[in-house]
Structures are given as C-alpha cells and as structure tokens.
Structure prediction request, 457 residues.
Amino acid sequence: MAKPKSVLISGFSDRECKEFLNRGVSLSAWISVSKFKDEKANDFGLETYLHSDIRAMSVPVVVDVKLSSSFKEKLRASTFDYFRRHYYRNNFLEYSNLRSWNHLDNVFYLAASFFYDLITRKKIDFIVSSNIPHEGALIVLFGVAKLLNIPTIMLFQSHIPFRIWAMKDLEDYGKFNVFSGHNVPVDLPDIPEKPFYMRYNINEVYKRKYWKTIILQTLKIFFMSITAFAFFSRDRYFRNIFRLHGTKDRYRLIYHDRSNTEKLDLSVPYIYFPLGLQPEMTTDTIGLRFGDQLLAIEELSAAAPETVLVYVKENPKQTYHMRGESFYRRLNALSNVRYIANDFPSLDLIKNAKCVAQVTGTAGYEAALLGVPAICFGATWYSSLYGVFPWKNRETLAHALKFTPDENKLKKSYDKLTRKTYKGLIDQNYKALIPNYDEKQAVEQTILSICDMINEY
Prediction:
C-alpha cells in the first residue's frame, strides 16, 4: 500500500511520539498515555487527547456528525457487545455508578460520532495502537476504523525480552498472518521459567495497597462530609464510599479450605485448568467469549470422559473482587470438577495432567514445553505451537488426549512463531527483562520496528 499521509497513534508517550515524527511518519492525531508536566511538552502540532479522557468520553461533543442509519446498525452489530463488556468492566474497577440505564448507549454513539469526525476531518488513513483496545470508548475507534476500511496495527508485548507482537486486529492475535516479523528466531527454553510478574510476594503488596486505600478513602469521605462538596458532587462522594466498601474484596486474596487439596490425588486421570487473573485484559479481552472462564470450564467438564476429573486451581494473585457467591455456585454445579488451593505447585499439576486447559495464560505454554498437550480457549500468542489445541468444539479435547510429544516438531513450531516478533518495548513493566536497559535506544528501535510494520502493510 502507499505510504500513509495521515496517521493516528494511540497509547504512546511523548518520547515515542517525537520519534515517530523523527522517522518521517505523517502524524495527524495522538491519543497520549499521560498528562504533560507543562505546555511545552506537547509542542508537536498534533490534535491531541488524553487516553483517560477518551476512555470515559470526557471530550467535547461533536456537533452535526451525520452518521447514516446503516453505519450505526453495522457498528452496533460489530462492536457494541465488546464495548459494553469492557465499559462495565472499567466502571466496576473504578466503582463508578451509572446514573441511567441507557448511559451506555449514549456513550457509545457519542464515541462513534467523535471518532468518525476525527477520522474524516483529519483524513486519517492509518491507525497504530500500542495495545489491544480494551478500555471504554477506544474500542469504538477501531470499530469505526474497520467500517471505514482504515488499516490498523495493534501491538502486544511479548514475554520474550525486547520483542513485540503485531496484528491488524484481535482476530489476528496468535495467527499473525499479516506481518512477517523481523525473522529472528529465539531458542526454545529447556524448562518453563516463572513469569517475572509472579515472583514477588503479592500478599505483602496487597496489604500495603489495602491500608493505603482505607486511609485515603476515609480521609476523602470525611472532608467531603464536613463541606458542601458532598452535596454538589454526589457521584464522587458515593464513588469514594463504594471504593472504601469494596477495598476488602479488592485486596483480600482468596482463602481456601485446604482439606480438598490435602487429599488431592495426582495419580488419577485429570485435566488441569488454572484460572486466569480477573479483572485483567489477558483474560477478559483476548479470552474472547471465554473471558467468562466458567463457560470454558463447563465446556471442558461436559467433554471430559467419565473417568477424567477437571482440577481447577485459583490464580495466586486473585482476590474476591471478581469471585462472588454466584461464581462458586456455578462452579460447584459441575460434579467432575475439583477446586484446589492457589498455592499448590502448578508445575506438579502440569507434569501429571493428561492435558492442560486454560483461557489464555502461560500454563498452556509451560505444558507445551514439557510435552503435555494444551488447550487454549481464547486467543493466545502460542496457539500455533506443536501440542497446543485452540478450542473449536468438544472434539478438541479428544484430539488433545491423543497427542504424542515430539521435541523436534515443537522446536520447529517455536522457531517459526518467534520469527514473527519485532524488536521493541511498548509495555514498561517488561523492561525488567532487558539487561542494561537504555530507554533512548529502546524507543528508537521500537518506532523503527513499527515503521517496518507500516511499510509492510
């Protein structure tokens, strides 16, 4: 395709934005990840919006954007369910109270008009996002872009140090059919390594966050109560009350009755299903319809042979924030499912399992490395590896249980997959994996990689 003349970037920092311009990319609009410390920080001459304002649609209303009825109908059919799930997810996280039952419809169509106006007015012909859209109104941006046939690039940080995945849309994640990558393979690890984000004492972290939130919200409520602020800003006042009330669930790790776990028999045939953390984009978004993890467990339970159990293990970082009473009632309705403690060694469960099943997490990848068949219900980066079976229907389990390990085939599939990666860093949490990290060099290489993607589209 011809070189884009008007590019919108979303989720990038000011340093990354500057590097885009240095590389000659014709930027016209920018959704920035953070506020600027001073006015001079944004001196790029671009139409700029804050990510947080876009997410909540706290932007000026666009007047007289005449979207056709057919455009609205197509956009709603393709995007609304996805938008609704994640908008409620964000409101749940922020303890925001929706003032009217049709507020969601209003935000959806306000976002549609806003992005349609921005794209047509700025003549946007290419969009690059530093992440898979999963927050509020940004989801609508990509729905509008798709209907207008505007090319898009979504990026996702790889667990491989200084590597990123690129896709045109969520459906391409794990397939990676559009972009060829830098064609630099990575050696297959000998044994699974514990992810860096699981290596710290989460209990201590949550304790600190718990008391910090309790003190902060109590002070806020106190000062708002003794002033007129509580009357004139009821939404913020009650939101602080809801946050205080929900703090215990948000930062209290799941407690288990260990009696079931102590009797756990690893010699019986079983399928291991480790639950993904929620709320979390890797579960709720790229999990697709199986962001409802119990739906995956129900499918697995129904497909399992009579002699095979399903061992469901809780995520070590999971709190009660997403595990209400209804979750356990639904789980307990499955007679061949056993719910086990979150501190039981995951590798032991993987090594002795007939099969490992998960929505999107790393346990499926670890299973593949150990020669154990893995089923993924959602979209995962490793879905093309030998020994990994993307869920299609209940026959998928039957195929997985007949799997025969082959290390050479696994290495070939890993080589082919990792060639699809690009050099770069778009998630700062992952810089911990990079020895002698240099931000300037990292930004330059990352934007150079994105330019390669744009040229390849």
Q: What stands out?
A: The radius of gyration is 23 Å.
